[in-house]
Amino acid sequence: MYLKKADMSMSDCLIDTNDARDTQYDGFHGSGGGIDIVDSRVFMQRCIVSRNRARNTYMQPGEQYGDRYYSYGGGVNIGWGCDVTMESCEVTDNFADNYGGGVAVSSHDWKGSSVSLVDCEVSGNGAGYSSYSNRYRGAGGGILVRNSSITLTGCVVAENGSQESQGGGLGTVERAEIDVDSCFFVDNIGSGLKLAEGHSSIRRTVIQNNAGAGVYGDTSVRAKGSGSADFLHCLIEGNWIGFLLSEVNTHIEQCTIAGNGWSKYTEGAFRVYEYTAVSLVNSIIWSNEPPMIGSDWRKPGTLTAEYCAIDTDSGFTGHDNIHVDPMFADTLAGDFSLLPGSPCIDAGYPYRADIDGSRSDMGWTGGGRLAPISRIKIHPPSLILSASDTSSAYVYNIGGGGLILTDLTAPEGFIVTPEMPQILAPGDSLQIAISFEGEISTEGFITIAHNDAYQDTAQVRVYGSVGTPISGEIYGVLTADGSPYRVQDTLTVPTGRELIIEPGVDIMFDADVPLLAYRAKITAIGTESDSIRFLRGAAERWDGIIIQTLGMSVFRYVRFSGVVRERRYGDASPLELRSSSRDIGGRFEFEHCVISGNYGKTSGAIDVQHGPHSVA
Question: Which H or E element spans position 534?
Fold first, then answer.
């Protein structure tokens, strides 16, 4: 069945034993073995889609021809511009030679589709099985999502197969928005879920006994942290490894991660690579073998845990964690509730409560409501103000009880309102107006005293800057009279221009941005008694200087500090100096310069390439 620009409802249908085949170069791409849907709105109820195939007669699994994607969706292929709901349907025993054995939601990035599965079973499907290698080679054995969004509610995704770690249950390619509630991902081959770019929210879900990672997260583009995921009230149990994550920042709350591990992996619960942050709250991590975290070829990511039960203290930072047996009811029977007397009962995150109103238990069976206590949150955590500027911070009560603000204090030079005390009901907020009237640059904290028993005095970091703000294109002369110069955004010396910096000038970076000069030059000549300084201002770090010089750039009696450059790909040094061409005499002269307190991936100081340069 092929639907295009259709508005259609289907109920109590059987779509069985159909075959879609590709035909080389003529536009027929063998997708949607049972149903192929494009630019349509479709509602399916109580339908059975089984034993269909999206066949690939000449392309290898995962191969692309032009902008066409072949052999997607063994049972159902949903292309661009669709709105599809499947309710109480069975998608079973379908196969795609490429991606999406059961259901493929695959769209061009300019026109994604929205799909909802409610109370559906997706089982026994496969993607890209190769008889030659006797293994799966495709992605998304049960469900594949590419440049689209999908919602699963009350679904069972079981016994599907894909290439290792590519989402035996559900796999994503490129960007996808995933929302899962009250589902089961069990007994899949090639990981339970594979997450990539975009955001995924997984709630009240069991991820169990999958051959591969329970959750595999890896982005497909060269970007730091371009994927994110939240897990709430989930059980991750019996998988080859619990979480295998690279560049998918993940928050895990009120979950139980237990009994994961296989000899192939050196970690049972987590393997977290660089540029990846994982935070755990109110969770139990127990009886995984081996227990914790590692990385075999890149720097490891970071894991923090608060109010968790963990069977090792290796690999985690955090507070209020315990390292004692949680006393599960019956792990052999798959019952990970807590026995009476468990140390995890009434020991969880204090801002959460169990259904009976008591303090939350740790693990996936606890929590469920806000505790009847106040909880303070402040945004933004820091502010930069110029002289006579006024800005605002906001105090929120995100708890379940009344929040009392008793005192508000500020550093010298800052003025804050309103007066205290103030009382905020649950869900209320208060605007704090902050102005800077100082005559010299000042850094400090606005402090707010409150009745939140589990947090110290709340603070907003403030930086009052005195000087000349600069950003964008910059050339000509920076005079000492205008110093210090406060960098608000990326600085660029335009092609063919020169930036001249006088002795005694301070260039202070209030943002984590670079100074760029492409086919341009910089002349910064200080004196022994009056040097020129490039240094951090309100920002904790800045992004260095990158110059491709045209002619000669000179740095004499100049100091550089506070640069951090750690890009994952390509060169990354505090000072990157290049000649515009080997043939036109581009060169640098460094004399009496100090480069200290910097960090770079390639070099901690200078990376110089091409041309005759002088460093003295």
Answer: strand 532-536
DSSP per-residue codes, 172-220: EEEEEEEEEES-EEES-BS-SEEE-BEEEEEES-EEES-BSEEEEEE-S
Q: Side chain identity at 1, as an amino acid letter?
A: M
Q: pLDDT band for 70, please (50, 70, 90 cuts).
A: low
Sequence-ordered list of residues with C-beta below 8 angstroms from that of 27, at least 6 positions apart, any chain: 68
The closest of 102, 110, 40 to 77, measured between CA atoms, is 102
pLDDT above 90 covers a percentage of the chain that reads 61
What is the pLDDT confidence band of residue 22, given thresholds at 50, 70 and 90? Answer: low
- Average pLDDT score over the chain: 87
Task: Render 37-71 in DSSP notation, one character per residue.
Answer: EES-EEEEES-EEES-EEE-SSSPTT--BTTB--S
Say if residues 363 and 338 touch (Cβ distance below 8 Å).
yes
Residue that the structure tokens 């509730």 belong to = 337
| Residue 184, both tokens | 């089961």
Q: Which residue reads 């000038």 in tokens?
A: 505
Do the beta carbons of residue 541 and residue 563 sit within 8 Å?
A: yes
Q: What are phi and psi of 138, to 5 degrees?
A: -100, -175
Strand, helix or coil for residue 266: coil
Asked whether the beta carbons of 210 and 192 are under 8 A apart, the reply is yes
In angstroms, rounded to a whole number, what is the distance separating the alpha carbons of residues 237 and 230?
17
Quickly list DSSP for 382-446: EEEEETT-EEEEEEEE-SSS-EEEEEEE--TTEEEES-S-EEE-TT-EEEEEEEE--SS-EEEEE
Query: pLDDT tens across 367-415, in order?
Result: 888 899 999 999 999 998 888 789 999 999 999 999 999 999 999 999 9
Indicate left, alpha or beta for 421 from its phi (over 0: left) and psi (-120 to 50: alpha): beta
pTM equals 0.81
CB 318 within 8 A of CB 306: yes
**What tokens were used for 39?**
């630019």
pLDDT at site 322: 94
Residue type, 556: R
| Positions of E strands within 22-142 | 35-38, 41-45, 48-50, 53-55, 76-78, 83-87, 90-92, 95-96, 103-106, 114-118, 121-123, 126-127, 129-130, 135-136
Rounded-to-integer distance, Cα 223 and Cα 567, Å: 9
Distance CA 401, CA 452 (A): 10
Instruction: Report whether 316 contacts 295 (CB < 8 A).
Output: no
Percent composition of the chain: helix, strand, coil (DSSP 3-state, to 5): 0, 50, 50
- Dihedrals φ, ψ of 518, to 5°? -110, 115
**pLDDT above 70 (res 23):** no
